[in-house]
Every structure is written in C-alpha cells, then in structure tokens.
Amino acid sequence: MKAIVKYRAVYLMMLPIIAYFLIFAYYPLVRGFVISFQQFRLIGDRPFVGLDNYAQVLKDSAFWDTFANTLIIGGSILAIGFIMPIALALLLNEVFASWFKKIVQMVVYLPHLFSWVVVGGMWIMMLSPDTGIVNQLLLALGAEKPIGFMSQEAYARPVMVFTAVWKEVGFTCILYLAAIVSINPSLYEAARIDGANRWHLVRYVTLPQLVSTMKVVLMLHVMSVLKMFDQIFVMRNGAIAGKVDVIMMYTYQKGILEFQIGMATAAGFLVILATLIITFVIRILIRYDEE
Amino acid sequence: MNRNRPYTSWQSRCFDIANIALMLLLMSSMIIPFLNTFALAFSSNLASMTPGIVLWPKEFSVEGFTTVWNRMQLYLPFMNNVIVTVVGTAAHVLLSSMAGYVLVQQGIPGKKLMISFIMITMMVPGEAIMIPLYVVNRDLGLLNTLSSLIIAGLVSGFSVLLMRNFFQSIPGEMAESARMDGAGDFRIFATMYLPLASAGLATVTLFEFVSRWNQFTPALLYISDQTKYTLQIALKSLIVDTDSTSSNFIITTNVRMAGIVIALIPLIAIYPYVQKYFVKGIMLGANKE
C-alpha cells in the first residue's frame, strides 16, 4: 500500500494508456462478444438470440467461399512468402561486393513502405490488358494477345499471392540478413578448418543459425494472413470477387454494407478463435517458447 | 562479410555470375514498377493513355499533377493526412514511451499485471473487431471526425514493449536517486529517460509515421464525409474505382499515377532513416518475453 502511494505519479502516467486500451481494445472485444449473440438494431431493444448469428454465418455458403479463399490465398502467401526471403537472404549473403549488396537491400525493401492502395493501384495499372507494361512486355516477347490478369478468374489468386510476396519479400529478407550478420564468425572459421566448402557453410552453419528468426517470422506471418483485408479490398473487382474475397471482406460486407452487425461480429469472432487456435498450435509445433 | 577470401573454383565463379544476374533481375522487378509509375505521372494526358513500355516520360508534362492537385482537389485529403499523421504520431510516441517508462520502474506493485494487460491486446487482430470498433466509435460520436483516426492506434503494445526494451538499458538507480532529490516522475521521464532513448524514439516515430501515412481500414470505416477523406481513401477511389470519371472529364492514367507519386514522396523522403532503424526495431519488438 505504501508503495502504491509512493509511486502514485507513475500510476498516473499509466492511466491514459490503460484508459485507451480499456475503451478501444477491451470494451469493443466484450461489446462485440455480446453483439454476436444479439439481434442488433440501431434503435429499439436488442434481443438475445443465442447462437443464431453463428449458425447463420456457418450456414452461409458465401462465408465458406471466403473461408476457402483465405486458406488458399493465405496459405500460398505463407508458404512462398516464407521460403523466398530465406533463399534471397542466403543468396545475397554470397555476394561479395558490399556496395552491390547494399543497393539490392535498399531496392527490395522499398515496396514494404507503401500502402496497399499505392501498391495495388500500381499493379492494377501495370497488369491492364490495354496499356499495362506487363502485357506490353509479353507482346514484345511474342505473346499473341494481351491477358486480362485482373478480370480472369484463373489469374486472380496467383496475382494476389504474387503481389503480396513481391511487397514483403525484401523486408523479411532484411530480417534474415540482420540475423546472418550477427552469426559468430568463428563458427565459419571452425567449419572451414574441418574442410567445409561454400555450400556446406550455408547448409550447416548459416541455415541452422537462422532457425529462431524463422520462428519469429512465421508467427508474424500467420497472424497477418488471417486478417488480410486492405490488399483484397483494393485489388478485387466484380469479375474476380468470387475467387479472392477473404473472410475479412465478408465481415466488412456483412457489417458495413448490409448492416448485418450481428452476423458480421460473429464472423469476426470466428476469426479471432481461429487465430488463437492456430497460433497456439504453431507455437507448440515449432517450440516457439523454448530456447 | 563472414568470409574474407572469395572462392576461385570455376563452379564458384559460375554460381557468382548466376547469382548476380538473379539479383539484377529481382531488382528490376522492384524498380520497373516505380519507374513506370513516375514516367507515366510525368507524361501528358494523351501520351499516358497510349500503349508502350514506358520507363521515361513520354511528352514530359505536369498536367497530371495539376489536374489531381487542383481540379480533383487532392490537397484536401493530403492535408487531412498530414494532420492525422503528425498529431497521431506525436501522441503515439509520447504515450507509448510513457508506458514504457512505467514498465521499467522497479518495485511497482502490479507491474506484471500491467504488462499482461498490454500484451493481451497484441493477440487480438484489430481487423477482426472492426465492426464492434465501428459501433464504439459511432456511440462516442466519433464517426466522420479526424479524431477517430488519430485515436485509432493511439498506443500499441508493440511500441510500448519496444520503448520498454530501450529504457531497460538505463540503470534504475538513476530514477530512484532523482526521486530522492524530489524530482517528479514526469520530469524524470522527460528530462532523463527520453534523451537517453533517442534511438528508440526514432524507431517508434518512423514506424508510426509510415503506418499512419498508410492508414487505410479505420478511414474506410469511420469516414464517409468527403471533406474528411484521407489520402489513401481519396486515392483508392481515384486509382482503383474504374467508374471514377467525374461529370466533365475522363481521368487519364497520368492523373492517377500523379496521385500515387504524391502519396509516395513523404515516405521516400524518410526512407534513408527507415532503413537504419526498422530492422533493429522489429527484432527488438518481436523479442520473446
């Protein structure tokens, strides 16, 4: 008690932060949980309807379509977006000219800085069949007619996966490079004395030293894949919506456009539940907390 | 870096050449989109609509910029974006470092509790509660105000933990002895701790600046009044919505790309600093507790 009085100024400094999290994190969470069991109306009473909202969501085929899209697109981004930066970092580390290495780092990192509106807008323009630079290149290389990347269902998902990986590969790569720099040089010395060649050094020294970074990256990516929204919202269009709309898109449409607040909130909580379960399982699988 | 002598066998040489070629290819895939965007932005209306591989302006002109800035009034959302970014970043940095300061003080009852309280907020994906957040903002009368956007992400667990990590290197006795001398905690925080964690402040400021400048979902949810639009929302309707033809003229490609270039410039301006601090920051922030 005496300590609390002594440190009252410290608590006072913490007060705005606690208040913010209470009002804009905990309260919406609890409020949302309540709403997901209610028939939500703007005016009038809001009767509790038990699990009706959840049942409605789970019976909605549109929900399962977006669920499948999330799994396919998110899973692909997760897999490709996990391997590519590691490969890139290892290859880049084999470059001897440090000025060249610096330039590559600077360039590949660039797209990470920009919003999906900017990146999505650029790619929509570049992939356009009439004047887009991608189709112009393909035509110059001998393609017969331009491809409607953003209007044909067959290309829709690959385009989303490609642009997502394109945007983040450099950033993740730099995380690995930072880890590579901090590897103890004497490990390489020792391996070389034992007769290791260039490939051996990568395979048996560098790669094992990157495992803990890989774990961090994997956790960050898993969390971000389930909540992907901006990219799809910006890059989707009527022609390909069925192939690319993800769960968050479903929530947005139900809640904001159709004003089915109850259903939208229930869908949101299903995502939270999925996130918690998946992160929990992965934490155990990759032994995240050990070391 | 880890080795001091290059390899000389012919296999190694071949690999090096292929590797460099691959890097060049990769770099072009990153650079060409930006070159293309800049080139089109600085082309004339007509030239920007004709097909071709454009890496340099065709018929150099700033028509795109004048149209998007004056006629389409992009300066309004641009100014809104500046306000939200500057105020939001300043408030975020101050509050996050205050919380970080509190969490490194020794012997405070309930410190563990406060840390868990903050860390739990990091486990819930913000997007998943976007509808309840919308309801809360509506109930508080914050819809269609810039305040709602400043409040969205006012503090984050990530930044708090990051600042805490930076403050941890400062010996705790310093605060204790200053307190003995009668200094208030806010003064100790502002005059002793903040100056010693300038790298931390720079990291959080840059992180927050970038994410504020790019903030999209909150603006999409809370703002429907056109005069309160932020840059990203205005750009979305300018660039992406294909029917964004206003009553009396067609939006040409150079206009759209000029919009993108305007959104890129502040971020490119801070890019050299970003490189310096980002990696350190994210690794510190991802540190396991």
From TrEMBL, chain A:
<feature type="transmembrane region" description="Helical">
    <location>
        <begin position="159"/>
        <end position="183"/>
    </location>
</feature>
<protein>
    <submittedName>
        <fullName>Protein lplB</fullName>
    </submittedName>
</protein>
<feature type="transmembrane region" description="Helical">
    <location>
        <begin position="204"/>
        <end position="226"/>
    </location>
</feature>
<feature type="domain" description="ABC transmembrane type-1">
    <location>
        <begin position="67"/>
        <end position="282"/>
    </location>
</feature>
<keyword id="KW-1003">Cell membrane</keyword>
<dbReference type="InterPro" id="IPR050809">
    <property type="entry name" value="UgpAE/MalFG_permease"/>
</dbReference>
<dbReference type="InterPro" id="IPR035906">
    <property type="entry name" value="MetI-like_sf"/>
</dbReference>
<feature type="transmembrane region" description="Helical">
    <location>
        <begin position="259"/>
        <end position="286"/>
    </location>
</feature>
<feature type="transmembrane region" description="Helical">
    <location>
        <begin position="9"/>
        <end position="27"/>
    </location>
</feature>
<keyword id="KW-1133">Transmembrane helix</keyword>
<comment type="similarity">
    <text>Belongs to the binding-protein-dependent transport system permease family.</text>
</comment>
<dbReference type="InterPro" id="IPR000515">
    <property type="entry name" value="MetI-like"/>
</dbReference>
<feature type="transmembrane region" description="Helical">
    <location>
        <begin position="103"/>
        <end position="126"/>
    </location>
</feature>
<feature type="transmembrane region" description="Helical">
    <location>
        <begin position="67"/>
        <end position="91"/>
    </location>
</feature>
<dbReference type="Pfam" id="PF00528">
    <property type="entry name" value="BPD_transp_1"/>
</dbReference>
<keyword id="KW-0472">Membrane</keyword>
<keyword id="KW-0812">Transmembrane</keyword>
<keyword id="KW-0813">Transport</keyword>
UniProtKB/TrEMBL annotation, chain B:
<keyword id="KW-0472">Membrane</keyword>
<feature type="transmembrane region" description="Helical">
    <location>
        <begin position="82"/>
        <end position="104"/>
    </location>
</feature>
<keyword id="KW-1003">Cell membrane</keyword>
<protein>
    <submittedName>
        <fullName>ABC transporter permease</fullName>
    </submittedName>
</protein>
<keyword id="KW-0812">Transmembrane</keyword>
<dbReference type="InterPro" id="IPR035906">
    <property type="entry name" value="MetI-like_sf"/>
</dbReference>
<keyword id="KW-1133">Transmembrane helix</keyword>
<dbReference type="InterPro" id="IPR000515">
    <property type="entry name" value="MetI-like"/>
</dbReference>
<keyword id="KW-0813">Transport</keyword>
<dbReference type="Pfam" id="PF00528">
    <property type="entry name" value="BPD_transp_1"/>
</dbReference>
<feature type="domain" description="ABC transmembrane type-1">
    <location>
        <begin position="78"/>
        <end position="273"/>
    </location>
</feature>
<feature type="transmembrane region" description="Helical">
    <location>
        <begin position="255"/>
        <end position="274"/>
    </location>
</feature>
<feature type="transmembrane region" description="Helical">
    <location>
        <begin position="20"/>
        <end position="42"/>
    </location>
</feature>
<feature type="transmembrane region" description="Helical">
    <location>
        <begin position="146"/>
        <end position="167"/>
    </location>
</feature>
<comment type="similarity">
    <text>Belongs to the binding-protein-dependent transport system permease family.</text>
</comment>
<feature type="transmembrane region" description="Helical">
    <location>
        <begin position="188"/>
        <end position="210"/>
    </location>
</feature>
<feature type="transmembrane region" description="Helical">
    <location>
        <begin position="113"/>
        <end position="134"/>
    </location>
</feature>
